[in-house]
What we know:
Elements: H1 2-11, E1 17-20, E2 34-35, E3 38-39, H2 40-46, E4 50-53, H3 59-70, E5 74-77, H4 83-86, H5 91-97, E6 102-107, H6 122-128, H7 149-172, E7 176-181, H8 182-188, H9 192-200, E8 217-220, E9 227-230, H10 234-243, H11 247-251, H12 258-263, H13 265-276, H14 281-290, E10 295-297, H15 301-305, H16 308-312, E11 316-319, E12 322-325, H17 349-355, H18 360-368
Parallel strand pairs: 1-4, 5-6, 6-7
Antiparallel strand pairs: 2-3, 8-9, 9-10, 11-12
Amino acid sequence: AGPYCTWVLDALGAEVTKVEMPGDGDFTRSIAPFAAGASIYFSSVNRNKRSITLNLKQQAGRAAVLRLAERADVFVENNRPGVMERLGLDYQTIARINPRIVYASISGFGQTGPYRERPAFDAVVQAMAGMMSITGEEDGPPARVGASIGDIGASLFGCIGILAALTDRAATGRGAHVDVAMFDSQIALLENALARYLNAGDRPQRRGSRHPLITPFQAFATKDDPIVICVDTEAQWRRLCEIIGRTDLSANPLFSDSNARTEHHAALEPELQAALSKRSRTDWLAALEAGKVPAGPLNDIAAVAEDPQVAARGMLRRVGERTFVKQPVRFSTYADIPEQPPPRLGEHTETVLAECGYSPEEIAALRAEGAI
């Protein structure tokens, strides 16, 4: 969650210095597969950053972090609550030397509550927050969402909190401690599922690709490859029935509106599936697009990488010898910020320490004692 949050900030123009332990550094540096000698997993969320190695178990290493924090706008940490306090690098300590600092703590369960000290990973949070209970086929077991939304959700809420705190600081001059939990963020991403339960007693269940409230709004098989059709209005429903040659369905009182179609989904889906199985995906997508019925192919990742819309929007960019996804926000006022390859472990240690006022002799002493 921390690396993704700081990559987004970096892609928006921040200068990010990543603090790693001497030796192996960030554990994700060792995760396969590798390209150009570096972990693709690590590289994807750490490109364009600077890397400095500091041994936080030594006083000299902790003192260097404080020197970094003196000149920083934002401090992001991604540890269990209590870790930074034990190191003497908690918000209260940092704020004493830099009252304007925006200090963001992204953790599994937040800085308060009975779970605060529990370790958490993406799948743990997806499970505990209920996301897995509503993900998967109706008659199948719970499933983890394919992307790490437990981490990424907290990353993005962390960015929002940091940017809001910076905006407040511009007006008031005061910094802030931003507390973001993966668990809280995942619950926020449940959208209307929890709201339906709290306000209508509706206990959401797994529905496969189907929307729980709108019908038809799901994936269907065709003669060859599957497509997704999403009907949001009655006009779209009538056009869909015309396109598939089943105007009788739109006249059927069981399917008179979206609520009725959802209630009688078990009767409707086989009728739609039988019609859609008669032609190819290409044929149906052309007809649905002409009829202004929202639909799209069910792409795999390889197809996404070759999609002409991805190319037109420039969503893939070459960074050194590797290719990565670009941040998706477009601005009319300035061009995208170029990115550099991910840093080698400790690549910028001496440069950053010199910027913080360390002399060459002091840097050599830090290296000799194993603080860097």
